[in-house]
Write a structure and sequence with these properties.
single chain; 21 helices; PhoD-like phosphatase domain-containing protein; globular
Length: 772
Amino acid sequence: MSTNPPVPTASTTSVAEHEELANKVAQKAPQPDPAQPVAGANEGKDVDQVVDPQRAAQDTSERNGSSKQGWQLLCGPMLKYTRLNDDGSRWHGSVLIVLRAPPESGRRKPDEPSCSLNGKDSRTKVVHLFTERDRIYWRFDLEVALGDDEREVWYSIVLPGQQHDKIERSFWVPKVSQSFRIMFFSCNGFVPGAEKQVNGLALWNDVLRLHAKSPLHVMIGGGDQVYSDGVCEPHAPLCPWAEELSPLKRSKIPFPLELRDKVDDWFFQHYCDWFNVSPFREANAQIPQLNIWDDHDIVDGFGTYRDAWQRAPVFMGVGEIAWKYMSLFQQHLPPSTTINGLIYDPASFNPVIAPAQRPTPSTAQEAAPTSRAGKSEEVEKQKGLTEGGEEVELDPSYVRHPQEGPYIKHRGLSICTSLGEGILFYGLDCRTDRTRHRICYADTYQAMFDRLENDLVPGKTKHLLLLLGVPIAYPRLVWAETLMTSKVMAPLRLLNKTFGICSSLFNDFDGKVELLDDLEDHWAAAVHKAERNHLVQRLQTLSYAKQVRITILSGDVHLAAVGRFFSKAKFNVPQEKDHRYIVNVISSAITNAPPPEAIGDVLNTRNKLHRMDHYTDENLMDIFEESVNGSARRFNKTCYTTRNYCVITRSDPSAGPEATTAEELGEHYAKQEANQGEQPKTSLFGKMMRKDKRDGSPPRSGVEKGEISGGTGTIAKNVKGAQVEHDASALAPATGTKVADALNISLRLEVDMKSPEGKTKAYGFSIPRLER
């Protein structure tokens, strides 16, 4: 079945009008400074100089020596982790660099850089990933033998003709049969104007301090690794297009080659600028990444607007370009098509895949579920396409979606890989398939469960970390959705469309209320409720069948919280034996400015004991008993609006100290009792907000909160951790449990968002393994 949009008829007059408008937009669009060297250019630069679209493409050639003849480093090095081999004895990953070719290189085959690793039985392979104009992307595939001790691996890169000028960095690998120390983050960028509210990328300084004390083996990016919203801002290529007040006219403007090239240059420069800014640049070179993308990697709300708008030529063109640079910079993969791989039909105002450049792969051959790494030759050679239709091999850690996305004409890429002993990771690409009424195709879910059915080993795999970009256990805001779609907003929408009044209330794309795309993006939105509940039920069934504890990681919402599903109190199931107990760790944002504290308070008032189905309840955990400054939090203990990130370790001697002194835990370590008489502390405003009967009632006891224990002391309850100066806080603080295989979670919240140090306070809890 074809996924290409239908081609509507259009009169010759209307086509000519829109082509004329498109040409005006393309001519007015500013041209970013093409491919200037940026390596080192952002060191010491204020963050607003990096995110300002006008300054993002400034000429930095003199500072970086572009006047010299030779190869120039534009971006990198950037590490990526891919997988362990079947027996867990070898680590596989890659490092990416982007170079500018010297003028005299012409059209000859590019000279190869080289990369070497220290240590016995380590291997490297250079891969010419992609070339566009004078930009050349090189990937070095890395393979490291694991030993009896975790160790620091040094790598050295030599550019062509520069043998005496090496780039030397290091990363850490675990020992054999050790679980990874994991860092999780999301929302690593700024919406326009947010950079003024905080001190740049300060939390990455905290990550590097933590890494220096207790090295991290991987950092998981939960989406929005870059913020590309600035492509519509002043001095950016799509500013003239965004200034057209009528969403209808804007949706019909074609995407001519001239404008497309300017947008492509903007994305390239933006990626180089952002991945070169300190201290994120240093983290990229030392800690291997594992990324899944989300809307801001494309543009705010992509996939959640009306279908007619999503199929607008400019919008689909931006999606294609965003896919290209996500593939290159975040996945170290060649893009499936170049920027010129689309043909734009002015009669339909929709992009059409160019058959000669984009042959459709055999659905029967590629849609088969992927098996565990190394199990079959087919897994080792999943097929992708370069810009010329050339086949490339995908690493077996990838799970390619069976269908192309509706608005991004590529098959989504999810990731399934081991994170050491007892931990399997699955990152579900929830953006490529997304529409306003669907998050993922049914066969995308089936591909995920087929892969998990094969890779989860009962008795060996203790924990499954499932990455979903947007929280799934999160308070409902049905009243806000109803208000924003009601007729009350119609007069304001008309004023905005006609005169540009109340422009901050409506988005720049389809003219809807600005926050509506965020609400409809949520799993808890009314339109996604059935899909959400079905997914959770399938996960619970998988947990029971494979005897594995499932934990969900999410970002997106710019606050820290912990949601959870669990069996109803009437079933009296201890937490460690409850296969329905699924925790949703919500950590966002590591860089973007947080929302006002009142937003967290409103969400807290919506924290009901909600009935998901006959067997399952859900709510948010009371984890934030005190503020980052040490004062008691009497009202809102569930949602903390400050910048943050998360550290995850497994309770195991090989993962580090078992924890936990009273000093490290703080005074309020994990409670072991059921807290039967505990009543939630709620303000008068909160009590008024709780009267929505559809959302249930407040939990009346610890049992109903999901905090019942069978005596092993693994209750998922608040622990106030220590400041980062304490050695043990470099690990995820535990809850005092000595139970093997518990997953220790540490939410690390910024103490002062104006400080360049980025110091954090840790809030921790444990998630028990699933027992029979």
